[in-house]
From TrEMBL:
<keyword id="KW-0812">Transmembrane</keyword>
<protein>
    <recommendedName>
        <fullName>Ferric reductase NAD binding domain-containing protein</fullName>
    </recommendedName>
</protein>
<dbReference type="GO" id="GO:0005886">
    <property type="term" value="C:plasma membrane"/>
</dbReference>
<keyword id="KW-0560">Oxidoreductase</keyword>
<keyword id="KW-0472">Membrane</keyword>
<feature type="domain" description="Ferric reductase NAD binding">
    <location>
        <begin position="22"/>
        <end position="168"/>
    </location>
</feature>
<dbReference type="InterPro" id="IPR000778">
    <property type="entry name" value="Cyt_b245_heavy_chain"/>
</dbReference>
<feature type="transmembrane region" description="Helical">
    <location>
        <begin position="22"/>
        <end position="43"/>
    </location>
</feature>
<dbReference type="Pfam" id="PF08030">
    <property type="entry name" value="NAD_binding_6"/>
</dbReference>
<keyword id="KW-1133">Transmembrane helix</keyword>
<dbReference type="InterPro" id="IPR050369">
    <property type="entry name" value="RBOH/FRE"/>
</dbReference>
<dbReference type="InterPro" id="IPR013121">
    <property type="entry name" value="Fe_red_NAD-bd_6"/>
</dbReference>
<dbReference type="GO" id="GO:0016491">
    <property type="term" value="F:oxidoreductase activity"/>
</dbReference>
<dbReference type="InterPro" id="IPR039261">
    <property type="entry name" value="FNR_nucleotide-bd"/>
</dbReference>
Length: 169
């Protein structure tokens, strides 16, 4: 007879989000699942939330395609434009010393800015896909700056992803 051992959950990645005016949600791969639920709840009942930053990192572009209609629904539901969504395709390494990578990064941003066309995915999406891993220092500095512009010092960060990502964040 097989023995099955189940551990967890070890803390919830999405408890207490409605207590913060600035919310940062980070999902890696399938870690998008609980974060999508949080996004939907915040859109229905924002509580204290004034701005939400949603980061999603994946290794392959097929993941974006699987969740594209779900992300479009969230975009369409965000009537007050309080959610900023950032996607990162981590299998494409970004190297500032590689001229091709630098040009790709700027071409992707320029094309998306003018047409919602994403060169990485080859289609129209509301949210641009960045290549490489997020630079968490830069990303969180940007969150801090925007929070200050909105008059807030409090920020809640919620993550569903690997331990290494948690350490980086």
């Amino acid at each position: 007879e097989p023995l099955v051992k189940v551990e967890g959950p070890i803390g919830a990645s999405s408890q207490g989000f409605s207590d913060h005016p600035i919310v940062v949600l980070v999902g890696a791969g399938i870690g998008i699942t609980p974060m999508i639920s949080v996004l939907r709840m915040l859109l229905k009942n924002p509580g204290k939330m004034r701005r939400t930053f949603f980061y999603w990192t994946v290794r392959d572009r097929n993941s974006f395609e699987l969740f594209s209609s779900l992300m479009d629904d969230i975009y369409d539901s965000d009537q007050k434009h309080v959610i900023q969504i950032r996607h990162f395709l981590t299998s494409v390494k970004h190297d500032d010393s590689d001229l091709g990578a630098v040009l790709l990064k700027y071409a992707v941003r320029a094309k998306h800015k003018h047409s919602d066309m994403d060169l990485i995915l080859g289609g129209q999406i509301h949210h641009q896909v960045e290549t490489g891993r997020p630079d968490w220092d830069d990303e969180l500095r940007s969150v801090r700056d925007e929070a200050k512009e909105l008059g807030h010092d409090d920020c809640g960060i919620f993550l569903c992803g690997p331990g290494k990502m948690a350490e980086a964040v």
